[in-house]
Amino acid sequence: MSRTEHHWPTHTTSTMPWRSGTRGPRADRQTTTVRVSIPAPIAAVTWAPDDDTAALLDRAAAALRELDDQHGAGLTTLTGVLDRTEAVASSRIEDESADLDDVARAVVGVRANTSATLMVRAGGAVDRLVSSSDGGTITERALLDAHRILLCDDPVDGRYAGRYRDVQNWIGGGNTPRLARYVPPPPELVPALMDDLFDFLHRDDLHPIAQAALAHAQFESIHPFTDGNGRIGRALVAAVLRRRGLTRTVTVPIATALVADRDRYFWHLERFRDGRVDDWVRDVAIAIGTVCDEATLTALLLDEAADHRATGVCADGPHAVVGRALAADPVLTEDRLDRLLRGDQGLVDRVSDDLCRAGVLRPVTERRRRRAWVAVDPAAELAAFGDRVHAAVRQRANRVGW
Predict the structure, then answer these.
(1) pLDDT tens digits for range 224-252
(2) What is the pLDDT of residues 48-93, one digit of tens each?
(3) Region 201-214: what's the mean pLDDT?
(4) 38 secondary structure, DSSP code
């Protein structure tokens, strides 16, 4: 069915002086100007969905509320698994790859996979930003704190952690912006554009999912940081949904759906700059509905696995203490296990060995101290959840001819 695009302001462009600071092709060295894109202010822009889109947004919001009400607070395993899933998926959008085993190793300081280390930090950044919005506001301080958590130890961009960029950045094109896919606004415009975005974030006249989608695209257009814009921008979606009351516990793993069709996601961001936003809003609503459907199945499967553990090796005693703890996070470190078992090293060794033999835990490190394990059932469901979401997204793409 054909639809008429609703009005949304387009970006303007401006030519700025440029001087290459790196060696490279002659054409790069001879480039003296760069064409930057300047997002329009959106704090007061009106947008209203057509009837079909309004119904789609309402269905997605209802699915999210139901997931949060039925499974969020009562089943902490779901929250832990979804948080880990979102970190994995968000990293894959950035062309990085790591699985839960890598994440567990990174938590205990094994640096074999830098992507996993970033994922651990990204999880903390998301938690900081989303939890801070519970009070009804999304503040600049919370956003900058989240970015600081994400990049504080980065060897290249650590010095920019927790502050807006004061340099020109670009997306694609190598070491200079000459062939870039997108060149964001110059750094001197970033603070005012972000102030405008925060004003937009605190409106209550837009549908929450539409507001989250539009805010994310505007944030990516501003690209206020030297690095980490994608992860912080997707965390902003969850923060808006929390601020508007659609969630209380669950962080919806929208990146799991977006990574299933990265090209379409980037295409939407490009169209946003031309003022074409309706399909993006609809796709975000569909993504949320899809992950809610699959997360509900995940909740049921994890609940069943927890019941099974409770009647087996984790039925009582210290093994039960650890079994219950796995409901909060499928990654188990030796430090965490030591705290659970009150510093009894002999008990730590015995319980971990028992749970590995029983197939409850899988070791992911080989060293004798500062070990890490993952819970087998939640780890398997994390992968299965991602596969199901991916299949659902691709099935819809084939059906509608993307």
Answers:
(1) 999 989 889 988 999 999 999 999 888 88
(2) 999 999 999 999 999 999 988 887 654 455 666 666 666 666 666 6
(3) 97
(4) E
Cα–Cα distance, 286 to 47 (Å, whole number) = 19
Q: Select from 190, 276, 219, 208 the least CA-distant residue to 247.
A: 208
Q: What is the C-alpha separation between 161 and 178, in angstroms, rounded? A: 26
For the chain, how are helix, strand and coil distributed in percent, rounded to 5?
A: 60, 5, 35
Does residue 96 surpass a pLDDT of 80? no
CA angle, residues 167, 16, 187, in degrees to nearest 5: 25
Contact 372, 104 (CB under 8 A): yes
| Cα–Cα distance, 218 to 7 (Å, whole number) | 15
Show the beta-strand stretches assigned E in 311-378.
331-333, 361-363, 372-375
SS (H, E, C) 48-108: CCCHHHHHHHHHHHHHHHHHHHHHHCCCHHHHHHHHHHHHHHHHHHCCCCCCHHHHHHHHC
Distance CA 350, CA 49 (A): 59
- Cβ-based neighbour number of residue 50 at 10 Å: 14
* 3-class SS of residue 249: coil
